[in-house]
Amino acid sequence: MGDYSNYEALHKSHSRTTGAEVVTQTPYPRHRRVHPRNNATAKNHTMGDSLERYLEIKVHQAALERIYNEIVVVGGYNRSSKDSITFDGEKRDKPFNWERPTARAEGDTLFIECFPGYDHVEHYAEIIACYLKIREQNGDPLTPSSRVLFVPASCSDVKAALARTNLPLFPGHGVDTVVLGLVWHLPHLTRSSEWQGDGPWQWVLRSFGDRKVAFLGFRPAFWGCISGEVVHYLASHFNVKEVIYLGKLGALKPGVEPNSWLSTGGQSLVHNRMVEWDSPLAPAVELLAPGSVMVGVHVTLGSVLHETKDWHAKFVDTIDFVDPEIGMMAQAAVRSGIRYGYLHMITDNLGQKYDEDLSNERIESVLQGRARLHQIVQDVMEGHLSRPI
Fold it and tell me: Region annotation Disordered: residue ranges (predicted)?
């Protein structure tokens, strides 16, 4: 599969002139476009009635402004292009994980441009198709959900996109541990230092005894297979010894209240294969936060829209947690021969309906619960990073 992640360059190179008319040959040919599953509904999805609100806050406004012949979700990181339209719903009150897919209209086709990654591209196609299906059922005159497609991104697309960012400029040689994810919530550990780096990647470097640590932030999302390629890049280009990922995930078993618990573990089911590793965080968790952290088995799933009730019923007896990245990172770490651990907030529950879920993450009760968990994360991380490497 070829590299289709640099949409802007390919678009320019595939234009030809016939007389006074400019004919554009898209770098996303029709034979590579596929439909998302689009089988989630409020009735069969674990979010239930919250599903529509979750979708509503994530669909790019351009997809709702007119009817298109097609809406095609693609891998293309083109935020510097004057033709790319940024998403109005970006949460720019945080330094990282706020850049969302952009949109580009080409005649009667709307391209939604995601940072390349198969899971990331498919997820946004699922979001748009599902929301348009709901609006369609309400009789709203928008693009039919059947006209939403996506172009699968390959591993080489992800690698090429990462190489075009400022990640190669990360001063990672000699770094022992890289901390990824919610790094801006660690002011005690970063000493609220100014983030370095000109581009989507920024970092703070600190030493904890003999251990050199990099807190590494990313403005787009570490969605799915992107995260695995990041771990592989850090291991292969900078020879880091350890990667720690701090984020959020969903619980499968009833009775686990969102925004009240942290989670960790050393197992993840990835494409029906169990990946296992020894978490370097285990000693610090056991010593500093045994009553606040659940240890369990994780499953990696590429899209929240695939978390249906049927899917949940299949895994609830054997699996505790779900998110798109943990297993991808673990797989890359195991293959690269480096240590890996995660410490995530449990922010929604697929097995029991709570008032707090992924559709209302900015309400005060959620923010208060997460602030308490962030402090526990800092305590555990300080305990871990202070141990000999």
Answer: 1-44
